[in-house]
Design goal:
The protein is of the alpha+beta class and 424 residues long. The chain is built from 12 helices and 18 strands. Strand 14 and strand 15 form a beta hairpin.
Length: 424
């Protein structure tokens, strides 16, 4: 959530910044509500002061033995007015908060203008696109003889689910273990296990609620739980309502979880294969950092995700998302896109974002600045390090052989009992 003070002091600047996202903000309607809030707040304070003054007068009159009933009647009348004013102020504040909860983050100055993913800025490329002396297959055609079964997934659940058996299931597990070990041992993250079900407060804290409720799977219970769309949600909420000491910063968490998404806005897209599933595995990186270093740590976190791709020798490109393609809560996002020979194009495998204090304000996640001794909002970062299912796809397609077998990457062989090839 954005700082409400921005809307009071720099309303036009906020409106202009939100226009970069193609977000239409009704500044006039907001200003009308804000002006009403100011008026009611002043009235409330005046009524409180008058009630306090008259209460003191009652005390003095009572001490002198004077008649106090008329004074008591006046205070009761003021109390009723005050209660009505406080109720109205609360309703107005709730309305303002509802508006603020639906407003996206202000973009970092380095984010380029643009309307959609066609306007994203390619920053760099790494690795050589493999040259095959045969026509490469996509992961669906490769996977069916190897233990990738979409029909069984649909039978057990529905479309956009898959069952993996045998060495392919082992390969996905190997990918996850390899990524966790790399982030823990080489990048300094603390392994974290977190709930797969979260409450509404947790999703509101990271920005999924109220705007993206349609994308979530809900467990009808009392209270209501939601299946996590990403480990970002439970892990970032570790610091909700917490004041972190400066010596503990930065906090760096790595967490492997399944992720659950309804894909409500993706009807008809990527229906073939494992690109867009209702359930998938992901290794998530989360950092809690001081504001002045968040840009530096954002670059570092992104490099940690890139390192996984480099170790697996998977060609990829790094893309800076434009204003119109940057996520709701993010101030700046890099996407890493891996080359898929079966599709002959790059596809997203990781998204690494700097949220600055947008999530922290919702979470009331703070650190104690040693220079002032006062709590201040932290900055939050996260990124996929990586999406395991898409990494599995990338390995299958980039390491495929003419006979339909898959060569196991060297980095993963120790996790596969030395297996060199996955064959039908």
């Amino acid at each position: 959530m954005l700082d409400p003070r921005l809307f009071r002091s720099e309303l036009e600047l906020v409106r202009q910044q939100l226009q970069r996202r193609n977000f239409v903000f009704d500044a006039e309607a907001y200003q009308v509500l804000e002006n009403r809030r100011k008026d009611i707040q002043i009235s409330t304070q005046d009524l409180q002061n008058e009630r306090n003054t008259r209460s003191k007068a009652i005390g003095h009159a009572k001490a002198k033995g004077e008649e106090i009933q008329p004074l008591l009647d006046q205070v009761q009348h003021l109390g009723e007015q005050l209660k009505a004013a406080e109720t109205e102020l609360e309703e107005i504040q709730h309305g303002l908060n509802s508006i603020l909860e639906g407003i996206p983050n202000i973009l970092d100055a380095s984010v380029p203008d643009g309307k959609n993913d066609e306007d994203n800025l390619e920053v760099s490329r790494w690795g050589e696109i493999p040259a095959f002396d045969f026509t490469p297959k996509d992961h669906v055609d490769l996977g069916e003889p190897l233990g990738m079964n979409f029909e069984l997934g649909a039978k057990i659940a529905s479309a956009r689910f898959v069952v993996l058996t045998g060495p392919l299931a082992s390969l996905q597990r190997a990918i996850i273990q390899f990524m966790l070990n790399t982030h823990i041992n080489e990048h300094g993250y603390v392994e974290t296990y977190a709930p797969y079900l979260v409450n509404a407060d947790s999703l509101r804290g990271t920005g999924q609620l109220p705007k993206f409720e349609a994308d979530l799977f809900t467990v009808k219970n009392e209270p209501t739980f939601y299946l996590i769309p990403t480990a970002e949600v439970p892990v970032t909420n570790i610091v909700r309502d917490v004041i972190v000491e400066a010596k503990q910063m930065p906090l760096k968490f790595v967490c492997h979880t399944p992720c659950f998404r309804s894909e409500a806005g993706a009807y008809g897209s990527d229906v073939r294969g494992m690109i867009r599933q209702h359930q998938f595995e992901k290794v998530e990186l989360v950092q809690i950092v001081t504001p002045e270093l968040s840009a530096q740590y954002h670059e570092e976190l992104t490099s940690h995700a890139e390192n996984i791709l480099k170790k697996l020798h998977l060609p990829y490109r790094k893309v800076l998302l434009c204003a119109g393609d940057t996520g709701f809560s993010s101030a700046k996002t890099y996407d890493l896109e891996v080359w898929l020979p079966g599709q002959q194009k790059y596809r997203e495998i990781s998204s690494c974002s700097n949220f600055k204090d947008f999530q922290a304000r919702r979470l009331q996640a703070r650190w104690r600045n040693p220079e002032t001794g006062k709590p201040e909002l932290v900055h939050t970062l996260n990124g996929s390090g990586l999406a395991a299912g898409r990494t599995l796809i990338a390995i299958m397609e980039n390491y495929q052989n003419q006979d339909g077998s898959i060569t196991v990457p060297d980095e993963l062989k120790p996790y596969m009992g030395g297996l060199e090839y996955i064959k039908a």
